[in-house]
Specification:
alpha+beta; 2 domains; six-stranded antiparallel sheet; four-stranded antiparallel sheet; 6 helices; 10 strands; 29% strand
Length: 233
């Protein structure tokens, strides 16, 4: 079992302690009445191959300490010649943290934004440029544009990718754009990775215009005629 650093902090377990233990013991997820969620989640992903959603009213019970409110997804990747892998993505929604907009007039003017390229990492294939995430640090707004025309054989991974822009947009509305990018950088998903952040000037263009320019330069020119989905929070 693999835990990234964020999962170690959330569950209270470290990687060295998880050997031989079950997922249901490490990530103890309860519904709003205290009932176990794993039986229904695992039954859905294993029997149908679809992505199972973890409701926003769920609780993650750590090894030690108080439960936290979480939402997320569970998916399965099952190559023909290998044992299936279960992927779990959890987002702590206990206390949404957004910058205090009332103090924005006191902040120094910032004319640059930060952008990063999303890379789609499919098993057995080289990472592919798949979209742009653009953060305006003045407002903590996040603009996202992802390719949607990838041919992904695994239905669970395909469903995850198609819904990713909407999911990230919802996270950004709740947590703020900076926390969403930091979360993606920290978790280092097996499916999605981010390139190092780069600065871009916003003096003469809007966030949306800059997003389109970056997408055209780094995605469209490499893959002409691609379909895309964009969102902003």
């Amino acid at each position: 079992m693999f835990l990234n650093r964020s999962a170690e902090q959330s569950t209270g377990w470290n990687r060295g302690e998880t050997s031989g233990r079950k997922l249901t013991e490490i990530a103890r997820i309860r519904d709003n009445k205290g009932g176990e969620l794993w039986p229904s989640l695992l039954q859905q992903v294993i029997s149908t191959g679809t992505v199972a959603r973890i409701p926003r009213s769920s609780k993650l019970v750590p090894k030690n300490g108080e439960p936290s409110d979480v939402s997320g997804k569970v998916s399965i990747f099952a190559p023909d010649d290998k044992s299936p892998d279960i992927f779990v993505i959890l987002l702590d929604v206990t206390a949404p943290q957004r910058p205090d907009r009332s103090q924005s007039q006191e902040r120094p003017s910032i004319s640059t934004a930060e952008w990063t390229m999303a890379l789609l990492c499919l098993p057995g294939k080289m990472p592919e440029p798949a979209g742009i995430l653009l953060l305006d640090p003045r407002t903590d707004h996040l603009a996202i544009k992802l390719k949607t025309d990838f041919e992904i054989e695994d239905e669970a991974v395909s469903s995850f990718w198609k819904e990713l822009a909407l999911d990230l947009n919802q996270m950004a509305q709740e947590k703020g754009g900076e926390q969403v990018i930091a979360w993606l950088e920290e978790t280092g998903s097996h499916i999605v990775q981010l390139s190092p952040r780069e600065a871009v000037d916003l003096k003469t263009t809007s966030l949306t215009e800059t997003l389109e320019q970056l997408y055209h330069e780094h995605i469209e020119l490499l893959s002409p005629g691609v379909d895309a989905f964009s969102a902003q929070a």
